[in-house]
Each structure stands twice: as structure tokens, then as C-alpha cells.
Amino acid sequence: MFWFAAWGTFTTFSIFLKPLIEDFGWLRADITLAYSVSCIVQAICALGMGRLTDKFGPRLVVGVFGSLIALSYLLLSKVAFLWQYQLVYAVICGIGLSTVTVPIMTTIARWFDKKRGTVSGVVQAGMGIGGLVFAPFTGWMILEFGWRTSYQVLGFITLPLILLSALLLKGSPEDRPNLPNKTTAGGVPKKRNIKGFTIGKAIKTRQFWMIALMSLVTMVLSSILPNIPVTILMMGFVLTLLNQLGAPFRSDLTALLLLCIAFPAVIGGIVTPIGATTPNFLIISITQDVLGVTIPFSSWVIACLPIAAIQVVAMLLIFKFCYSTDLPGLKSIREIKGSIVEEYSALGQMSKRESFSLYVLCLAIFLFMVPGLVTISLGQEHSLAKLFNTYLSMEKVALFAAIVLLIIPIDWKNREYVLSWKEAGESLDLGLFLFIAVTMTLPAAFMETGLLDYVTIVLQDLVGEMFPILVVFILACLVSLLSQLGLQMPLIALFIPITASLIDAIGGNPLAAVLAVGMAAVGTTYAVPVSTPVHVIPFSTGRISMGQFAKSGVAFSIVSTLLLVFVLYPLACLIL
Q1: Would you say 569 and 528 are in contact if contact means Cβ atoms under 8 Å apart?
Q2: What is the pLDDT of residue 517?
Q3: How far apart are CA 388 and CA 182, in angstroms?
Q4: What is the set of domains in the chain, with CATH numbers?
Q5: Closest Cα to residue 514, out of 484, 475, 480, 481?
Q6: Which among 272, 275, 274, 258 is positioned nearest to 222, based on CA atoms?
Q7: Which of 456, 444, 392, 400 is nearest to 285 (CA)?
């Protein structure tokens, strides 16, 4: 099934040549270059896919990386420039196709001793059958509906087929003790090779996944709630866990667990506009003023969510190289499991007020997503898209959610509501509103005095014929470096108008550039603890030193900046 979907759709490459040339006027050689580079990418990545299959099994490798094939088709339906087509087809599709051979053939070799050649032939027959089915089907689709719709259909067809194929794959029989062992040709059972497997390694693996789970929970919560209270909440759990484990006051394990909360709390702020609420809303407001358009909620999430996921993986890998969790006398997770369950039970059930608040939050997020999804599906000029963008703008949805919280009664007799006017007034930070108002005067002064136009002309002469992505790289590096000093809001007010105006002037995508540079101010502050209040919280416990913080933070700041420029910006160009 996997070969049928992957190789079958891959054989349709030449069918799209003619409509692409007719629409864009590209040279045939430039388009086929993407095919050639894709083959090179497949060859290089196949080496890594073999190692990943040995470590994580074929199901995870095919499910995660194989899905990139379907994603590439969906992205190809949105391309507007040659470099976008080449990047998506050569890199994203190439990585996805590198999973077609190695994980599948490795799985066959592990499971089939007899008739292995027959099974391999059946699997590879899927390539010919897929080409026989998808080639004429794609040709008909292009004639009837156009090449963009055809790519979308291919993406939606291949994605469930690939995921289903991944679910049907199983790891080595040696990993399933309830199954009989494989036999040799003479019928003698093979002994399972357990050399090198120790209890210490098993415990270490559990610790790794515990850290990954805590990081993921923190990131998800910080994407829909203010990240400072989320950090405080999760930090209480981590400190309790450290005490239960008997960890030293300062150690690599202590630093690791504290940072696996602090870093994801910042990462979550880039996933949605309501994550790092104040900086993100400032970015949206300035973009609206400078360009006259805004970044839709759903488009923001679609562009930034993959970056956040990659950041979490990169963070865990950096932690693995920077910190050691091997401490003598440390209790295992199993030993303290009872204490963890007891503390969780002490929290009790959600109150009626908390439940209603959660329902309203979910409703607001859904309404936030609707206009962008409709715009992506039907186009910006569609009447339904205009209707939703007009009446379901982010500020109107936020106001609606606030009103709902103020009018839903939880105790009608005592006139008690989910949110009272008194509580709402007390929770408002007038100092923060004043700071935002003062910060907003900077971009307004830029535009009204004509200084923004002057700076744009000067910088345009300075960058010359430089590619827009390189200009975005320079701006993002400057913002990332300065944001380590805790100057996110002033940097956004200064650099976002300049970025939008300059990238628009040199022919780039200003919305994508604004998103990349804005997220450099929000999501790359990892080098020093004073860069953001979120990092001050674990640092204030005294259990992590400046050196331990910078040990991983500097490298992660660099990696995050590169991801925002060379992954987020091209991806946002396809979406926005």
C-alpha cells in the first residue's frame, strides 16, 4: 500500500510539466532540476532512515517522515515561484520518499525467513500498479480541475494511505516476547540477542520520555494560555519531582528538568497568536497598520506549529548532549509513582467555573481558526471568506468570549457568574496597557513622519539584489541577539514596520517575513535567564546556574533562529 501511494504519485511528475510551464513560463530544465535534486536527497536521507528504523521502528519512521510526501503535494498546490516548487519537491518530497525502501525492506527481512523474495516482489509490485492507476487519474484531474486541485487531491489521497500503511507495520519479532522466535533454515530456534540491554538503560529511556511529555504539555498549555502562569504551575510539579527523586540542589538533572519547562513555555508562545499574548498581538496590530492586512489565526498555526514541534525535538537532542542524568543514589520513577499519583489526586475534580472556562476557550479557538481555514480553502476573494474575516476577526471573537464568561451563571440564585466584573477589573494590568500604548506610538510615529519610507529606501539601496530570505536572515539574527536583553516589545515595535516595508519593497512576502522576524523576538530567547520572565522563574529558584542555562541556551537560540528563517519563512510564503 505504501509503495502504491508513494511511488505511484511520484511517477506523475512529468504530467505536471506542461501546465506548470504554461502557467508560469518556467524552463523545463529548471523544473526537472527539482526531480534530480530530489533523487539526491532520497539517497542521502536513506542512510539516516535506516538508523532511525533500527532505533524507533518502521511504524514511527514511515508515519512521520513518509507523511511528508502528502504534505509536499499539498504545498505544491500553493506555489507561486520557481524556488518554492524546487524547495518543496526536492527537499520535503525527497525526505518523504527516502522512507519508501529502507524501512519496508528491513521489516520484510526481519519478519520473513521463507518466501522473502516473494513478499518483496509483492511489495514492489505496488510501484507499477500505482503508476498505472495514478498517472491517468492525474492527467484527467488536470484537464478537468487544473494542476493545483490535482496536487491537493493527491495529497489528500496519499496521506491516509501512508498513515494506514505505517500503522500496519510492526517492529522486529525479537521485540515481541509473546511471539515464537524466528527459526533458522534448519528449524532451530534463534536466541534473542539481549546483549547490552540493562535496567539502567530502560530507566534512562523512561526518564527521556517523561521529560519529552512534560515539555510537550508545557508547550501546548503555553500556546493557549499566558506562559508565565503555565511556567509557575509546571515548575511546582518539577520541583516536587526533584525532591521526590532525591536530586541534588544543583546538578545536570536539576537543570535539565527546570529547562524542559522553561524552554517549551517560550516555544508554545509562537504556536498561536494567543500564546505569547502581548508580543503576538502587537505583531498583528503593527502588521495591520503597515500593510493593511493581518495574519489569520489558522495560517499562523499552520505555519508555526511544525516549527514548534521541530524545536522541541532539537531541544531534547541538545539536552542529551549537554546534560547527564546518571546520578548515584537517585530514585527511579517507579519508586515515587505513588507520591506523584497522590499529589495529582489532591488537585480534585474540575470545578464548574473551570469547566465552563475550558469550554469557552475551546469555542474561541475554533472560531479563531474558521476564517483562515475558509480563506485557505476557498480563496481570499470568495464571499464566504470575506464574510467570516469580517465578522469573526480575532478581536471580535475575543470580545465575544469575554462577554460569554461574564453572562454564564454558575449559581443563578446568588448571581454568581463564571467571571465577575470585579474579578475582570482586578485582573487587568493597567501598567501593561500603558506600556503597550506607549510602544505602539513608535511604529505610528515611523509612518506618520515619513521616517519609515526613508529608512526603507536607504536599506533597499544597501541590500541591493540580495535574496529576500537572506535579508530576513539578517533581520532575524539582529532581533534574536537583541532579544536576549529582554527587549522583545521595543524590538517588535521597531523591526516589524521596517521588515514589512523593506521585504515588500524588494519583492518578498512581507507577511511571511513579519512572522519570521517577529517570532525571532518571541521564540529565540534562550541564551540567558534575563531574556524573558519565563526564564527568570526557574533561575530564581537558585537551582540552576548561569553557566548551566547558557550551556544549552546559546546553541538552542542559534538553532531556533535558523529554523525560523530557513523553514518558517519559506513555509509561510506558501501559506500567506
Answers
A1: no
A2: 92
A3: 60
A4: 2-175 (1.20.1250.20), 200-353 (no CATH), 428-575 (no CATH)
A5: 475
A6: 275
A7: 444
For residue 358, give the H/E element and its range: helix 352-378
Alpha carbon 497 to chain centroid, angstroms: 25
What is the three-state SS of 107-131?
Answer: HHHHHCCCCHHHHHHHHHHHHHHHH
Q: How confident is the model at residue 230 (pLDDT cuts 50, 70, 90)?
A: confident
The percent of residues above 90 in pLDDT, for the chain, comes to 3
Q: Is the pLDDT of residue 485 over 70?
A: yes
d(CA 364, CA 405) in angstroms, rounded, equals 11
* Separation of alpha carbons 437 and 435, rounded Å: 5
Q: Say which residue, 23 or 352, is predicted with more confidence.
A: 23
The pLDDT of residue 282: 79
Quick one: cell of 66? 513518509
Q: SS3 string of 366-421?
A: HHHHHHHHHHHHHCCCCHHHHHHHHHCCHHHHHHHHHHHHHHCEEECCCCEECCCH
Grid cell listed for 568: 518558517
Query: In 292-333, which residue ranges form alpha helices assigned H by DSSP?
Result: 297-322
- Rounded to the nearest 10°, the torsion over CA 280, 285, 289, 291 is 40
CA distances from 290 to 231, 408, 453 (A): 34, 38, 11
**Separation between Cα atoms, residue 18 and residue 12, nearest integer Å:** 12
How far apart are the C-alpha atoms of 496 and 513, rounded to whole Å? 9
Selection from 177-181, 265-269, 486-490 with the highest mean pLDDT? 265-269
What's the CA gap between 503 and 511, in Å, rounded?
9
For 75-88, b/e burial (b = at least 16 CB within 10 A) is: bbbbbeebebbbbb
Contact 552, 252 (CB under 8 A): no
Measured N-to-C along each axis, helices 67-76 and 58-65 cross at an angle, to the nearest 10 degrees, of 0
Decide if pLDDT at 184 tops 60: no
Q: Which three cell numbers stand for residue 137?
A: 487519474
Cα separations in angstroms, 330 against 88, 276, 333: 47, 36, 10
H or E, element range at 344:
helix 337-346
**Weakest mean pLDDT among 199-213, 298-312, 485-499:** 199-213
Three-class secondary structure assignment of 231-244:
HHHHHHHHHHHHHH
